[in-house]
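User: Sequence recovery, please. Input:
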């Protein structure tokens, strides 16, 4: 079985990274039956993704910790095994019949005991030559004895997930020419020779919703990027060969994946749960089609997906937001720190935190504690100011709460803070609407 092609979104995954990976892997499996495409994720599921995958009975993508080459990528799986109670003759005949050099020896319990190889027999033969008269042919009496008497047990032991680079060092440090690969229960699942270890197979990866090394899975430079589907600026991913690289300025990667379903004439009505997942990602990435990144094409695609999934956009959008916000614990610390970024300004700095909600009033009951928390942050980190944006998606604006010197914020947005706080309509994006005004 060949290793599946990995389809994966960015670090700190959002719903677009999860849903686009699942949907694109699904499409690729329909289009290309010669490979298997498997969706993965680089971190915890956002609550709305968890809700959706459960609701539509879609398997949750596995976590991917790295794409460095591993022992299991080069090992010979399921090596020939003999029992330690078998005779040396049985072992010898097997080695000869299969023209191999090594047999893995296990006990009746199926657990690894050691190996027997052609070198073992060569050594025994030479030893017997010393003991017999020159005129007498060697009888090689050891052949009747059990393998357990002659086990080679100092073979380097590896695990399937060990990094190839580390396995190489371990085996080179040993005098033996091979290593065995054991699973957690100490059953032998593979064998690797020095020749195997000299290979560097590249794991194949399709990037969705990102194309920058800093946002990609660990080990990406060692892997082979075979495709990119993204809606962000062009980053720094490099490849050896030309690849399909689809980058469009649409509101979500899910919009592009939807376009690919259309391009290959795969009817989304026949894949309603995938259509629902794509719609969810389009809606969360565009804040229910309200974000300034939303295009006319996104609106068309949302309508098309809603039809294919038999969903009402308004109702489904509300369900998504409820799922996203039901998991919030509402503590002052989580409100301020969940999404907090520091920016440098001359020789000082400032912090902008953002907290999305559908119930600003409830958050504002905690304003005195929030402000105290922000003031401590300003004092401890010698900041110019700390700004919290309580962004209300349904009201389409943000409550600004500022500790420290508020003048810069007031000036940049032409607002007056009353009691360190004020409502600013239309502000939804820290990246697009807030940071440029404060740094610019
Ligand atoms: Mn996205």
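Assistant: Recovered sequence (440 residues):
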């Amino acid at each position: 079985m060949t290793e599946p092609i990995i389809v994966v979104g960015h670090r700190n995954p959002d719903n677009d990274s999860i849903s686009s990976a699942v949907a694109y892997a699904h499409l690729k499996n329909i289009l290309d039956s010669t490979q298997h495409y498997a969706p993965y994720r680089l971190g915890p599921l956002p609550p709305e993704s968890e809700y959706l995958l459960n609701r539509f009975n879609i398997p949750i993508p596995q976590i991917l910790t790295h794409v460095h080459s591993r022992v299991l990528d080069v090992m010979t799986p399921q090596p020939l095994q003999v029992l330690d109670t078998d005779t040396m003759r049985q072992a010898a005949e097997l080695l000869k019949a299969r023209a191999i050099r090594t047999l893995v020896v296990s006990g009746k319990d199926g657990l690894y005991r050691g190996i027997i190889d052609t070198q073992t027999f060569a050594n025994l033969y030479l030893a017997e030559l010393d003991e017999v008269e020159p005129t007498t042919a060697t009888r090689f009496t050891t052949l009747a004895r059990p393998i357990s008497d002659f086990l080679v047990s100092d073979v380097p032991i590896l695990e399937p997930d060990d990094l190839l680079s580390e396995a190489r060092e371990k085996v080179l440090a040993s005098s033996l020419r091979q290593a065995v690969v054991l699973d957690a229960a100490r059953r032998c699942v593979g064998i690797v020779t020095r020749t195997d270890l000299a290979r560097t197979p590249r794991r194949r990866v399709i990037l969705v919703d990102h194309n920058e090394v800093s946002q990609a899975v660990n080990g990406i430079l060692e892997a082979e990027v075979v495709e990119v589907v993204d809606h962000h600026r062009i980053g720094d991913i490099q490849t050896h060969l030309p690849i399909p690289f689809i980058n469009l300025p649409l509101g979500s990667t899910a919009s592009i994946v939807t376009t690919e379903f259309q391009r290959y004439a795969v009817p989304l009505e026949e894949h309603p749960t995938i259509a629902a997942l794509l719609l969810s990602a389009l809606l969360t990435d565009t804040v229910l089609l309200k974000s300034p990144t939303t295009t006319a094409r996104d609106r068309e695609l949302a309508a098309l997906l809603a039809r294919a999934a038999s969903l009402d956009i308004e109702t489904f959008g509300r369900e998504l937001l409820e799922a996203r916000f039901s998991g919030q614990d509402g503590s002052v610390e989580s409100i301020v720190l969940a999404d907090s970024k520091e920016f440098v300004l001359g020789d000082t700095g400032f912090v902008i935190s953002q907290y999305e909600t559908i119930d600003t009033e409830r958050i504002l009951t905690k304003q005195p504690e929030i402000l105290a928390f922000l003031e401590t942050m300003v004092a401890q980190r010698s900041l110019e100011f700390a700004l919290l944006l309580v962004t209300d998606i349904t009201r389409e604006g943000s409550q600004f709460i500022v500790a420290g010197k508020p003048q810069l914020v007031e000036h940049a947005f032409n607002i007056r803070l009353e009691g360190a706080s004020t409502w600013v309509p239309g502000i939804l994006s820290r990246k697009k609407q807030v940071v440029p005004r404060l740094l610019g």
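The chain is about 35% helix and 20% strand.
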